[in-house]
Amino acid sequence: MIITTTAHVEGKKVTAYQGIVFGEVITGINVFKDLGAGIRNIVGGRSKSYEDELTVARENALAEMEIRASAKGANAIIGMKMDYEVLGADNGMLMVTCSGTAVKLMDESDYLG
């Protein structure tokens, strides 16, 4: 399935709008990742464990959105937007959300309308 932040896909024509779809993931960050990130915050450097957690959350949110678009009969999602938030009393939860418009696309060369 094509997922894009743009309002159109080059060489394709939107033939039907199937509605807005969402993907949401909320994941906890464990104490060991927090400890490692805290040390890196002091001495500098990247937190591989947080980056990996963010990558997994982002991929899961996109996959969930794709499943919901497919259920609506779409073959693409246009205008996709992604957002990140930290939640919880100690900011120990990461929320990744994405949304977009589920559409049916057809090759422009095949379109007779």
Describe the structure.
- A hairpin with a 5-residue loop joins β3 and β4 (93-107).
- 33% of the residues lie in helices and 41% in strands.
- The model has no long low-confidence stretch (mean pLDDT 84).
- The chain is built from two helices and four strands; from the N terminus they run ββααββ.
- It has helices spanning 31-43, 48-71, and strands at residues 2-3, 12-28, 76-87, 93-107.
- It has a single domain (2-110), classed as Translation Initiation Factor IF3 (2-Layer Sandwich).
- The two termini are 23 Å apart.
- Strands 1-3-4-2 form a four-stranded mixed beta sheet.
- The chain has 113 residues and is of the alpha+beta class.
Which stretches of 5+ consecutive residues score pLDDT under 50?
none
CATH architecture: 2-Layer Sandwich
In what order do the strands lie side by side in the largest sheet?
A: 1-3-4-2
CATH class: Alpha Beta
On the 0-100 scale, what is the average pLDDT? 84
Number of strands: 4
- Domain count, please report it: 1
Helicity range:
25-40%
Cα(first) to Cα(last) distance is 23 Å
Structural class: alpha+beta
> What is the gyration radius calculated from CA atoms?
18 Å
User: CATH superfamily, please?
Assistant: Hypothetical protein apc22750. Chain B
Q: What is the count of helical runs? A: 2
| Fold-level CATH name | Translation Initiation Factor IF3
Anisotropy-based shape: elongated
Main sheet, how many strands, which sense, barrel? 4 strands, mixed
* H/E element sequence: EEHHEE
Strand content: 35-45%
